[in-house]
Specification:
Layout: H1 10-15, H2 17-20, H3 23-37, E1 42-43, H4 51-55, E2 63-67, H5 92-105, H6 116-119, E3 123-127, E4 132-133, H7 145-159, E5 164-168, H8 170-175, E6 185-189, H9 206-216
Parallel strand pairs: 2-3, 2-5, 5-6
Antiparallel strand pairs: 1-4
Family: Belongs to the uracil-DNA glycosylase (UDG) superfamily. UNG family.
Active site: 69 (proton acceptor)
GO cellular component, one term: cytoplasm
Amino acid sequence: MSEQTIALEESWKAALATEFTSPYMQQLKDFLLVQKQSGKRIFPKGAEYFRALDLTPLAKVKVIILGQDPYHGLGQAHGLCFSVRPGVRIPPSLVNIYKEMETDLGIKPPRHGFLEHWARQGVLLLNSVLTVEEAQAASHQGKGWERFTDAVIRKVNEERDAVVFMLWGSYAQRKAAFVDSNRHLVLKAPHPSPLSAHNGFFGCRHFSKANAFLQSHGRAPVDWELPANPQDA
């Protein structure tokens, strides 16, 4: 996956140039090619592998929400963690995110799960692994994506100031353990999954805490209220 052939937003392309020329990325590209040649369906589509980065340039990052893997159902994943395409049923974890948002900010849950409105404001919705095989959860873990997304987090940690890291669940908290909490706000809570949301995700008030922190550092708060029509995102 050479830097010359990859389509990516320019600030990220420059910041991550050494990653794209590293052997592990070529190995990852080879792995994905073999998977496709063998007839396996990979989500999201290739043009959306880096959708989170394309929508949220490095200089605009103000919040990072970390996910783990793309959704592996047909038509769900489009490159943003927790987000699904318009018309797709809202996944259970996102339902719980909306519940907490309503409790925290009084925002009524939207009828869709399309989160590009957040991404365009500087919320980097980053999965740790950027591809998955259809109906095979975690099938692309350990193939190189984790190293790449570690580099993304490291760039934000080093080159940006006053960023909010929302780390939901032990996986996200381990992945971003190196983030400098003296320069950034690190918010931790259990994962919003129905299995764990009642253990402390509900009531965490991360959305209001994020905005208070951003405003205290002279940055515009995030408008967490999603448009009623996802096409207006």
